[in-house]
Amino acid sequence: MNTAIENHWYPVAMISGIDGPRETLLLGKKITLGRKDGTCWVKDATGKALPTVERFGHLWTSPGQPNRDLFTIPEADSPGRRLVDVGSVKVKCSPLRAVENFLDIAHFPFVHTDILGAEPHTEVDRYDVKIREEVDEVWATKVKFYQPQAAKSAAGGITTEYMYRVPAPTCSVLYKTCPPRPGEWDIITLFVQPLTDEWCEVWPWMALYDDESTMSEMVSFQQLIFMQDRSILENQIPRKLPLDPGMEVPTQADMTSVAYRRWLKKIGYTYGAQLVAA
Amino acid sequence: MSWIAVGLKKDVPPGIVIPSRLADTELAVWCAPSGSYHAWSDRCPHRGMRLSHGFVRGNTLACIYHGWQYNEAGSCDYIPAHPKLTPPDTICVPTYSCTEAGGVIWVSLEATDQPLPELGGRVPVRSVPIALSAENVAAHFGAGSAPTVAVVSDHDTVLALQPCTDTLTMAHVLASPDADPKAVSRWVEDLRATLEGVPA
Q: How many CA atoms lie within 13 A of A96 on its CB side?
């Protein structure tokens, strides 16, 4: 057992979507989950109960013994936010590739054309990235990008500010300029369930200020974005994320991804990673 | 190493990129607006995205992920996230010998001084995938062990064989300019069915 991998919390279901016992995969192993009397449960293949947390509309579990609580997002609790369960998308790629793509802004004009980005607004200015040792998380701040349609709630093009946070190896939280409330952050997360090291189930979740859009409009917007990402994620070679330098060529715009890869290596998180050039 | 057909000129006009493969080598084959053909490793060195999903802009092939542009020599000469940066020469895509002749796009994975296959004035009809190794397809016509081109008496055709995998061959079919392309096309459909052992 590799505790550096197993002692983390992983999303395995959207709570509102659990209607009966069901099987899924976590780190390549079969697990069963369900809900009884309003409380969710998870069992491994031997029938042993695994620990659970119900948070952010999702059910979380761990095959190991997590040495800390599941992360929190205090901002998401503020009143007036609408909490959006986006659903799930299965993607044939390493869970780490899915997270890294979420941390990337330079692809917006080419993959999310005329929505999250548009030529000629392609330049990525320098931003700040660091590993916050006290909480052991990767943070990127002061990320700015011009967006034609930053959110369902945006009326036109704006320069959006982003903060990215990686609080767990397969999860990322994005804090993003809220179009109707410029002083607040919208929160968009990517929770990734590693089915195997080359196959994942992605559960986006959002906490937005948006009094206009219907729930299904907000879900559709985010699903469209992620479907565009999937066309990339299933066509990267190799499927695993290379952690050693040499196999891929980063630039300054990729500082977040560089920090993410370094951090994964530092904490020994190698599931879905490629360590030597193939 | 000899020349192997990877596609027909009429299927890859200027401005188009397609995926192709020769055994273990996955290729992005594209045609510049100038009409020159290129066969590259199907992988952007930045983040590993398949270049065959990219787009041709000017005389460059651009990756669909971040828009990095590669000139006809395979060197990156523009990174949209850093428009003022001149990319270092080290950012380049592995390229292979590629040329068009007789309406066929030919690739050699290694440097070669071999002449291009002789087509006897035949012209391209179509490309057909056959679920067999190239050796097995060639053996059907009594051709040698590692053929790239088989001359077939039926309809006086040439089959330029592209070994894609151990169980897939792309047969690029050429025939006399006087032949009826529909008759040749039906013949190759029947051939495929016979070789794959399924009813036509």
A: 27
Determine contact, residues A44/A52, Cβ cutoff 8 Å: no
Contact state of B49 with A124 under an 8 Å Cβ cutoff: no
The topology under which CATH files domain B4-108 is Rieske Iron-sulfur Protein (2.102.10)
Q: Which B residues, 84 through 143, put their C-beta within 8 Å of a C-beta on chain A?
A: 85, 90-91
Per-residue pLDDT of chain A (278 residues; tens, 9 = 90+): 699 999 999 999 999 999 999 999 999 999 999 999 999 999 999 999 999 999 999 999 999 999 899 999 999 999 999 999 999 999 999 999 999 999 999 999 999 999 999 999 999 999 999 999 999 999 999 999 999 988 888 888 889 999 999 999 999 999 999 988 988 999 999 999 999 999 999 999 999 999 999 999 999 999 999 999 999 999 999 999 999 888 999 999 999 999 999 999 999 999 999 987 54
Q: Rounded to whole angstroms, how far apart are CA atoms B161 and B119?
A: 13
Question: Are residues A253 and B82, on separate chains, in Cβ contact within 8 Å?
Answer: yes
State which CATH number among 3.30.565.10, 3.40.50.720, 3.90.380.10, 3.40.190.10 fits the domain covering A76-274. Answer: 3.90.380.10
Q: Is A211 on the interface with B (CB under 8 A)?
A: no
